[in-house]
Amino acid sequence: YVLTQPPSVSVAPGKTAKIACGGDNIGSKSVHWYQQRPGQAPILVIYYDTDRPSGIPERFSGSNSGNTATLTINRVEAGDEADYYCQMWDSSSDHPGVFGGGTKLTVL
Amino acid sequence: EVQLVESGGGLVQPGRSLRLSCTVSGFTFADYSIIWFRQAPGKGLEWIGFIRGRSYAGTTEYAASVKGRITISRDDSKNIAYLQLYSLRAEDTAMYYCSTYTTAFYAFDYWGQGTLVTVSS
Question: By the 8 A CB rule, do B101 and B24 touch?
């Protein structure tokens, strides 16, 4: 199973960033999203498609339907500049699943 | 506060083995799976193996990319998980992270800071 992410997305501060994660019928699976700033460990920002862990700003949201899951970041800030990874987890498997190749978000 | 701390990285010669440790605090270690990831320089995340908690008898799973060269174990009395990787190659050069999930299945909400392994002669 392959997850496809765009290598890069650029957005101006205050605007909305959308990062796509494509996979065959991914809408029938669960998707988690991670943010990784340079030199740091990943941080979970969305789990089970749409849920936000405690401490993650409401500006971060997720959706998942059909063949695409999407991470949306509203009112983008400079501190959001990072790599973002999607992860597909199939509830029928006892296995971490598959990770996308990552998307570099650049705040202009 | 939940903390995971990796140790044991460094420079290793090709063909040698390494053992990394993941020392955990802040939760009931024995109840949770520990997953090892790695990230080669400039590349994405790759899970390489994990060990389940005591409810699942500490069973292990390994990624195909390292199967046959990896052993993951845990010492619940010390709150430490171990990663052993054998017959190291240049392509094993990476930052190695341990992680766990506590809220949602395989949604990794706690990570260590990572330990760098460089395989070179």
Answer: no
What pLDDT shows up at residue B116? 98
Over 90: is that where the pLDDT of B50 sits? yes
Contact A108, A13 (CB under 8 A): yes
pLDDT(A69) > 90 = yes
Place of tokens 């195909």: B64
What is the CA B38 to chain-centroid distance, rounded? 8
Given a contact cutoff of 8 angstroms between Cβ atoms, the answer to whether A108 and A10 are in contact is yes
* A24-29 CB contacts, 8 Å cutoff, 24+ apart: A24/A67, A25/A66, A25/A67, A26/A64, A26/A66, A26/A67, A26/A68, A26/A69, A26/A88, A27/A64, A27/A65, A27/A66, A27/A67, A27/A68, A27/A69, A29/A64, A29/A88, A29/A89, A29/A90, A29/A91, A29/A97
Contact A101 B44 (CB under 8 A): yes
B41 in A contact zone (CB under 8 Å):
no
A vs B: CB pairs below 8 A: 55
Other CB atoms within 10 A of residue A91 CB: 12
Instruction: Give the N- to C-terminal CA distance of chain A in Å, as an integer.
Output: 33
Alpha-carbon distances of A41 from A36, A44, A76, B45, B108, rounded to whole Å: 6, 10, 21, 10, 11
